[in-house]
Amino acid sequence: MDQILESLEYPDDRRIKLVVYQLLDVAKSWWIMTKKALEGRGTIVTCDIFKYEFYQRFFPTSYRKDRGVEFANLKQGNLNIEDSVAKFSNLLRFAPHVVSDEEAKADHFINGLNLDIFTLVNIRMPKTFAETFDRAKEAETRIIRQ
User: What is the pTM for the complete model shown?
Assistant: First the structure.
C-alpha cells in the first residue's frame, strides 16, 4: 500500500485516511483509541507515526525479530519458485536492512535456492531480483522437464 500511495503522490493526511478506511474490526477500534490518545498528547499524526504505532501493536518487536531470523535463514526446501518468492517477499519486510539493494536482494534469494536450481541461476550471475526470479523459473521448468 505504501508503494501505491507513494507513486500516486498522496499527501500524508490522505494516505492515513485511505489506510484507516481499509482497517477492520479490532484494527479499526485500536486506531480510533490510539489516534485519540496521540492527539490528546499533542502529537501530530503522520504516516510514519501511524506505521510505528501499527507495527508496535500488531507486529511486536519479538515477532519482527523472529521473522528477521527466519528471513536470514530462508531456504527453498520443498517450495516451488513462485511460493519461494512469495515467502521471501513476505519476510523481507521484516528484515529490509539485510538486503540493502537489488543485487543484495538477488544474492540472498539465490543463496536460499536448492542446489540444482542454485547452480543454474548462479552461473548466469543475475544482478536484480527480477532477473533472478526469471532465471529461477527457467531453471525450475528445465528441471521439471528433465
Answer: 0.69
